[in-house]
Amino acid sequence: MNARIDANFNANFNDQSGNREARLRAGIAAWMATHLTGEFACLRYRGGPGDEDAFPELRKAWERELAEGGWTGLGWPVEAGGRGWSIADQVIFHEEYARAGGPGRMGHIGEGLLGPTLIACGNADQRARFLPGILAGSQFWCQGYSEPGAGSDLANVRTRAERQADGAWRIDGQKVWTSLAHDSEWIFVLARSDPQSRGNKGLSFFLVPLDQPGVEIRPIQQMNGGAEFNEVFFDGARAEAADLVGEPGDGWRIAMTLLGFERGISTLGQQMQFIRELDWVIEAAREAGVADDPAIRARIAKAWAGLRTMRYNALRMLASAGEGGAGEGGAASGVLDKSSLIYKYYWSNWHRDLGQLAMDVLGERANLVDANDAKRSRLQGVFLFSRADTIYAGTNEIQLNIMAERGLGMPKEPRGQA
């Protein structure tokens, strides 16, 4: 979107007459129809979970296209380079983006997670150095949290950070399940900076360049054939003193702030992906002649109702953060109320069940791989990848404990010493 078109869009957007929401939706849809064409046409409906290694360089170019159109940093405050949109307006963008077939965002971790965290917890120097590249779609980030012995139990982090004589930090350890590390320039790392500490004490939050000696990235081959996840090994990697976010030992607070943003506004875009997948299932059921089977119809109806429940729960969760996008309360701090605790458990189990429904609809064909049958391949991908949904970002068991302990105030489950 050039400056003139952008000015026209903003003028219409800010016009208070008529149906403002309809105009906003129409403006986003029109931009997507104009720009998700030509070289970008092949990206439609690609790059989502389970397909994140599709067309990485072209999707990076798409991030720059979005940035030039003014579609990045929508909820960031204006003083941080964003557009300061309300939660309601951001929801509309994510829904229309997904409805148009917008590809999975290569810049999501930077724009959706790290950027808001630096706005909330970083210093002026860090914001000045990193936010512009994220907004421009020219700098890409990955997340260094999980480890072989610290996945759902994140507080058991073993990666070490040792302060050097010049004030920099030496990083040693291993991270795993690191999405798109092989396509990123930077990683934010939760590491133990106090060797005598246990649990969530003595952790620090670092910004670490990946292109340096002492960093090795190894792909993890998945059962669906992709390799969007990686292991990242640190052997004397360096984080500059200026790239420590907050104070030493403040890492857990910052990490939890970031995870609050993970359950933020982009969840509505995720649900639009789910709507597409349910549509694929319904289409496959019709083609297979099982759409009138009472059991299949009941399961499709249950999936449809589950999507609506998911949407209203997400809207309630986001409303608890306060209107105004990057305004007061949770929207700026990443802190959401207790209604957010059910979200991950609910959607991950719903999605796993949808994957099973897809296989049952396909019947015997579900067991056969045919690269020329795109519809079948997509549904097989949903089934295979959704197996992981109830494991990553906190297993079902961990999620139930969180709901019980933090949400309902029940006694904590006995835990062994770290």
Automatic annotation (TrEMBL):
Keywords: FAD, Flavoprotein, Oxidoreductase
Gene3D superfamilies associated with the record: Acyl-CoA dehydrogenase/oxidase, N-terminal domain (1.10.540.10), Butyryl-CoA Dehydrogenase, subunit A, domain 2 (2.40.110.10), Butyryl-CoA Dehydrogenase, subunit A, domain 3 (1.20.140.10)
Cofactor: FAD
InterPro entries (alphabetical): Acyl-CoA_Oxase/DH_mid-dom, Acyl-CoA_Oxase/DH_mid-dom_sf, AcylCo_DH-like_C, AcylCo_DH/oxidase_C, AcylCoA_DH/ox_N, AcylCoA_DH/ox_N_sf, AcylCoA_DH/oxidase_NM_dom_sf, Mycobact_Acyl-CoA_DH
Domain Acyl-CoA dehydrogenase/oxidase N-terminal stretches: 52-137
Domain Acyl-CoA dehydrogenase/oxidase C-terminal: start-end pairs: 249-407
Pfam families hit by this protein: Acyl-CoA_dh_1, Acyl-CoA_dh_M, Acyl-CoA_dh_N
Domain Acyl-CoA oxidase/dehydrogenase middle: 142-235
GO molecular function: flavin adenine dinucleotide binding; oxidoreductase activity, acting on the CH-CH group of donors
Tree of life domain: Bacteria
EC nos: 1.3.99.-
Top EC group: oxidoreductase
Signal sequence extent: none
GO cellular component, one term: plasma membrane
Family classification: Belongs to the acyl-CoA dehydrogenase family.
Protein name: Acyl-CoA dehydrogenase FadE17
